[in-house]
Design goal:
Blueprint: H1 2-6, E1 11-14, H2 21-34, E2 39-44, H3 47-56, E3 63-67, E4 78-83, H4 92-105, E5 108-116, E6 122-125, E7 131-134, E8 151-153, E9 163-168
Parallel strand pairs: 1-2, 1-4, 2-3, 4-5
Antiparallel strand pairs: 5-9, 6-7, 8-9
Length: 178
């Protein structure tokens, strides 16, 4: 909420929105109270998952729910592209394609993205309800090699998960992408 207010954002693309569904509806209630015309785009690859997320966020008046491969297809125009979690479970080549798509689209003012640092173990749900470790995704290291973000937000995670939020101007993420 502070980032959205500080950077005067009026819209946000959330990818993959399934990763944030458990708490995004609470944030969106606060945003709508403070910024009534705020537009929220929930992007995911699975129709069933998207319907479940939409049901959880049913009180959101300016929400749009779109099924798309967000690493291949253009994202809606928005002030902020947001991704705290979910990229860790994707193929590196698709994460790289997503980052490049955002960096080169000219339709987004900021990318707010989660990135790991140090030694971090992530547990992710897999079929059958059991959990298995996913990989830590450090966007500053190869193969992503993103430049220094304009802002780093730390102390966001619990239980030894070493994760930060990076705020980028998309055109400054990697020199060869601008």
């Amino acid at each position: 909420l502070r980032i959205i207010k500080q950077y005067k954002a009026k819209s946000m693309v959330d990818v993959p929105c399934r990763a944030h569904a458990s708490w995004m509806h609470l944030l969106m209630k606060e945003i709508e109270r403070d910024i009534p015309d705020f537009k929220y785009y929930c992007i995911d690859t699975n129709t069933q998952v998207l319907k479940a997320v939409q049901n959880q966020m049913r009180t959101l008046s300016n929400g749009r729910y779109v099924v798309k491969k967000f690493w291949k297809e253009p994202l809606p125009e928005a002030d902020i592209v947001f991704s705290w979690g979910g990229l860790e479970t994707m193929k590196e080549v698709n994460v790289l394609a997503f980052l490049k798509l955002v960096a080169t689209s000219k339709k987004h003012k900021y990318l707010l993205v989660g990135s790991h640092f140090g030694e971090s173990v992530i547990m992710t749900k897999i079929k059958g309800g059991t959990k298995a470790p996913a990989r830590a995704l450090n966007l500053r290291k190869a193969p992503f090699s993103l430049n220094r973000p304009m802002r780093v937000i730390s102390d966001l995670s619990k239980h030894g998960l070493k994760k930060q939020m990076y705020l980028f101007k998309p055109e400054s993420m990697r020199a060869e992408w601008s």
